[in-house]
Amino acid sequence: MANSSSIMDSFFQRSLDDLIKGIRLHSPESSTSISSFLSKSIEEIRREIKSTDPQTKSTALLKLTYLHSIYGFDISWAAFHVVEVISYPQFNLKRIGYLAASATFNESTEVLLLVTNQFRKDLSSANDFEVSLALQCLSVIGTSDLCRDLCNDLFTLLSSTRPYVKKKAIAVVLRVFNKYPDAVRVCFKRLVDNLESSDPQAVSAAVGVFCELSLRDPKAYLPLAPEFYRILIDCKNNWVLIKVLKMFGKLALLEPRLGKKIVGPICEIMEKSMAKSLVFECIRTVVSSLSDHESAVKLASVKIRELLAEDDPNLKYLGLQALSDLATKHLWAVLENKDVVLKSLSDVDPNIKLASLRLLMSMVSEDNVAEITKVLVNFALKSDPEFCNEILRSILVTCSGNYYEIVFDFDWYVSLLGEMARVPHCQSGEEIESQLVDIGMRVKDARPELVKVGRDLLTDPALLGNPFLHGILSAAAWVSGEYVEFSKNPFELMEALLQPRTNLLPPSVRAVYLQSTFKVLVFCLQCYIWQREEVDASSLAGDLTSLGIDSKCGLQSPESRTLSTHGAIANSEQNLESAIRDSNWPFEDFDNQDALQENHTSALSETEISTQDPVVKLLNLTETAVVPLIWSHEVEVQERARNILGVVQIVKQDILGVGAMHETSGKKDFEVCEITNLFDDLFEEELGPVSVNAQARIPVPADLIFKDNLTDLDLIYSDLQLSSSTSFSLGTSRSREEDNDPLSNGQGREDLESSTISGSLLAQHRKRHGLYYLTSEKDETGSNDYPPATESKYLDKNGDEVNDLVKLTEQSLTIKKRQNHAKPRPMVVKLDEGENFIPAKKLEIKDELLSGAVRDALLENEEVSTSSKFSEAGKPSVERKGKETLVIDGPPDLREHSVTADSEVGNSSSRRSKHKNHSKERRQHSHGESGEGKEERSRKEKKKSSHHRHSRHKTQEKQGSSNNASNQTPQIPDYLL
Amino acid sequence: MIKAVIVMNTQGRPRLTKFYDFQHPDKQQELIRTLYSVLCNRPENVSNFVNVDSIFGPDSQLVYKHYATLYFVFVYDSAENELAMLDLIQVFVETLDKCFKNVCELDIVFNYGKLHTIVDEIIFGGQVLETNSAEVIRAVEAISKLEASSTTNRFVPKSVSSWRR
Questions:
Q1: List of domains in chain B
Q2: Structural domain for A895, as ranges
Q3: Between chains, do A348 and B43 touch, taking CB under 8 Å as contact?
Q4: What backbone phi and psi angles, to 5 degrees, belong to A825?
Q5: Residue A541 lies in a domain
Q6: How far apart are CA B7 and CA B71, in angstroms?
Q7: Which residue in A160, A304, A591, A602 has its CB near the most CB atoms, within 10 A?
Q8: Which residue of B44, B45, B111 is the best one to mutate when testing the A interface, meaning the one whose CB has the most A CBs within 10 A?
């Protein structure tokens, strides 16, 4: 009965096609009905999948897999059913099982333990496609356990005579090595053997695997360089060549002599190949790894120019990218193409624009930075917000590079920062903020201009409303407070810092504002007191000339100030007065507006009482503005507000007291003076930059105990995120994106154009048929031309601007002799020079395991295979000690022995390496060329060299004494290509 | 290495998803939505590469091609050549076209299984294993034949719909 019911189930079960049709019926309607349909289907599937009938069960699983991959249903609950379906003998059902497993299984799937035997069974199947299913699945879901258990089966498959199975077995090795590095000991040799296979597919697969492996840790695969070199020379398959080039790109960086070997073949390919992808790969290899080879770089730059001339945006983009890689070492190549680069800045393609911007920034130098940035900032104003910010960001990064290396005129740069802050859409607030503060601390000479720029920013009420600029305002406030002595008008500054709209600022910025208020206030009081002292002095001395007063000022200056600073203070003291006059404060009795210096004394003495007024006004202003803040919920704000208020009240009492007494009654005056001096001393210490390594220099206290469990950190972090996200509004670009998102507009009509698609697709194919970036070896003779790209619809709306740009930068971009600057570059304080801040870079443990295993495997393999050869040949080998070592006394035609005492071996070996060189030369002289076949030679040599390296552990004791002890074992093997 | 292969239509509905690093299904859907919002905002006639480091983690590139109502998207890392990936999309589409005789979106919607077979023949665990579409088609046809033969000896039809045809 059970059986017949399952047959009925099977009869009336909905197939995947039925499910899809059902979904399509629902999709144009509202999303609620589709979701209810889907959940109903899932219910149905849950019932069906329990069926004992294989067909019913697997159909249910197929539907489930579909829903998983298209609608994102989590189907991990069905894992056991997947295992069951995999175990069915029917191929079509098994396939469904494997498909589901590949899509849903992962490290945490418990039932994986159950599939090992099924995998093993399928791997040994006589049916290629069954084996393929298992391999395919293994390549995606293989865990370390699974890989360990199936390692031996894989080993067998690696030398399979069935090409279809073999190539897949080779490819799966990548996963196995990554998950279970010990597999290297078993499979590595066979993998290497496949590099020499006569089956091109096996070679291709093996090269693919080595490419992946060596990109992660190139060093371990250096010994295989001769093999790769042979493939580079012999192989005609573009896909394989690309992979080999990728590997050489990494290997050549580790072993410079390799570069010399490969540069020739690579140039040849670059010149002859018709496949753009291969040519591009050659360019990239030359640019990244062979940039010391002049001729290759020249050729590459010619090829890059060809790419740039293409109308196809893809090729143009890649050309620009290659050019920017070249920029660091070969700027001439970029300059040669500067017109294209500049034109590309206004391309419609965002990729191209960005690449062009990067290139433009690479051309920036000390001499042209001002012009280029000026043009760029103007260009940014006209660009879309995203690109505008990109421009600002790259200007900031370029100019601040290596402690503002290319900035000569800091006054210019500081005002540029101010200008950039005002660019609409500017989102680089943080960077500008930190640079403003950083320059303040590092560059003394830039401070007056900084304060000026800071003032302009602070007094601009429009900026307060833009949350992206709050950081910049905070920096401006800090700078104005810290370097207030350069301020032309502290009163104005005070007003700006205390303006009512500052309540728009976040508390952290407000706290900075308050602190700056405090500094400015103290500065003003200080000025006031000096002024009074001056007045006293003048009333005592009678009519002194202004000169006399100046000298008195010098004498009276507090010890805490240096003479030069005092000059600045005295200067701003006068500014203070004039500002007071300008700002409508009661100073009717000031009659001398212009000849200030001349009438200094008389003016002051006439108004000695009135001078208190502005100070009192200032104190009142501060008090009024700060009082509400003492109830702030933010401790930083509240505390600083209370401090300020306390000082204001004390000082006000004293000053009013002094005013009441009318004349200098030494005692009271002294008190105010003392208080002010006290606070002034607080800010006397100059703040400076902090070394990046500062923290590291402090030893960790012995009694410091770190918390092991940092779970509460998440809690704190989430609080932080919450507050920051609420205080900032969304940028315009973001919200626009959301508006456009059609997903939110419900499902569109899916197959509106399904009838036309095939036609257009075919047209595309016809147009493109055979004309690919990558010509396959078969049609190598056929199409040599890259298809003409679609007519570029380059709207010339930006044309004029670009032309301007081209013109403007025309001169500045050519390499000039360094100009003689009128004034010397200001000193920039640097702390970290010469200290390399090297972040501890560690390979992942797994990678280490893998490369270790590979190294061992390479050595072991070669030992076995070469030892017999060796005894046959009967040639003596030379071994050396420890890490260093050996020159092979091998066949006479070994010409290029590794001499290497590179960075690897280090100083300790330098003495020895000299010896080695000698011995090498000797050998070279003593042996003539022999007529051995080239290929065989290289193979033999490779093996020997590897053998030596490897056997150093074991054989060194045995043979060491009998050999030339001065020779050394290179860490890097010989390349006898 | 190829990290993912995604085919989706111009409304953002996925038609084929293949991730070679495991991703939770919710994450998959999120990635697809993000990719779609990136792709649908790109103008026509611009380059086909997009840097997706921010979406797929460091060292991620994306190449896509837009055919009629479909986007074909490959996500890959620095071990692959950009232009070769662009070609691979071409190979893939060409293979589809040969398999389905003038492929259209409907073919892709209703041939879920076959689509996977084709992708699996071209890309194996993230590595490109076959770039010749004739070879791919040969393997796909052999697999279809094998599937058919393993069903014929059953007296229950494969499914109601196939019975209806």
A1: 2-152 (3.30.450.60)
A2: 875-960
A3: yes
A4: -70, 135
A5: no
A6: 6
A7: A304
A8: B45
Residues of B in contact with A172 (CB under 8 A): 124-125
A744-770: pLDDT as tens digits:
444 444 444 444 444 455 455 445 444
The answer to whether the CB of B1 falls within 8 A of the CB of B126 is yes
Size of interface A-B (CB pairs under 8 A): 248
H or E element: which one contains B50? strand B49-51
- Highest mean pLDDT: which of A475-484, A906-915, A957-966, B147-156? A475-484
Are residues B112 and A66 in contact, defined by beta-carbon separation less than 8 angstroms?
yes
**CA pair distance B152, B141, nearest whole angstrom:** 17
A764 contacts in B (CB within 8 Å)? 67
> Has residue A891 been placed in a domain?
yes
Structure tokens at A778: 């078969």
A171·B129 Cβ contact <8 A:
yes
Q: Do A13 and B127 touch (CB under 8 A)?
A: no
**DSSP conformation class of A881:** B
A442 within 8 A of A450, measured Cβ to Cβ? no
Contacts of B78 in chain A (CB under 8 A): 215
Paired tokens of A896 = 């290029």
Cβ neighbours around A345 below 10 Å, total: 25
CB within 8 Å: A743 and B36: yes
β-bridge mates for residue B75, sequence order: B4, B62
Task: Please answer whether residues A616 and A528 qualify as being in contact, where contact means their C-beta atoms are separated by less than 8 angstroms.
Answer: no
Q: Distances in Å between the alpha carbon of B79 and those of A167, A599, B33?
A: 19, 79, 26
**CB-CB under 8 Å, A348 with B46:** yes
Is residue A671 predicted with pLDDT exceeding 80? no
Cβ–Cβ below 8 Å for A756 and B68: yes
Q: In sequence order, what DSSP letters do the residues of A366-390 get, joined into one string?
A: TTTHHHHHHHHHHHHHHS-HHHHHH
pLDDT value for A625:
86
Structure tokens of A834?
């010469």
Do the bridges between strand B61-67 and strand B127-128 make them parallel or antiparallel, or are there none, so unpaired? Answer: unpaired
**Higher model confidence: residue A7 or residue A337?**
A337
Domain count, chain A: 1
* Residue A942 forms part of a structural domain: yes
Could you give the CA distance from residue A923 to residue A916 in angstroms, rounded to a whole number? 10
Rounded to a whole number of angstroms, the distance from the CA of A280 to the nearest CA of chain B is: 8
User: Distance between CA atoms of A856 and A116, rounded to whole angstroms?
Assistant: 28
Alpha-carbon gap: B55 to the closest alpha carbon of chain A (Å): 16
Taking 50 as the pLDDT cut, the residues of chain B under it are 155-165
Residue A355 lies in a domain: no
The predicted pLDDT at position A522 comes to 85
Chain B CB contacts of A318 under 8 Å are: 49, 82-83
Nearest Cα of chain A lies from the Cα of B45 at a distance, in angstroms, of: 7
Q: Shortest Cα distance from A213 to chain B (angstroms)?
A: 10
Q: Which residue of B has its CA nearest to A760?
A: B68
* CA-based nearest residue to A486, from A553, A565, A420: A565
Amino acid of residue A534: E
Mean pLDDT of chain A: 72
Least confident of A211-215, A305-309, A530-534, A575-579: A575-579
What distance lies between CA A332 and its chain's CA centroid?
26
Predicted pLDDT at A83: 93
Q: Above 0.95 for ipTM, yes or no?
A: no
In a mutagenesis test of the A interface, which of B11, B128, B165 is the best target, namely the one with the most A β-carbons within 10 Å? B11
Q: Do B47 and A753 touch (CB under 8 A)?
A: no
- How far apart are alpha carbons A336 and A278 in whole angstroms? 24
Is residue A203 over pLDDT 90? yes
Name the band, by pLDDT with cuts 50, 70 and 90, for residue A228: very high
CA angle A266, A269, A274 (to 5 degrees): 150
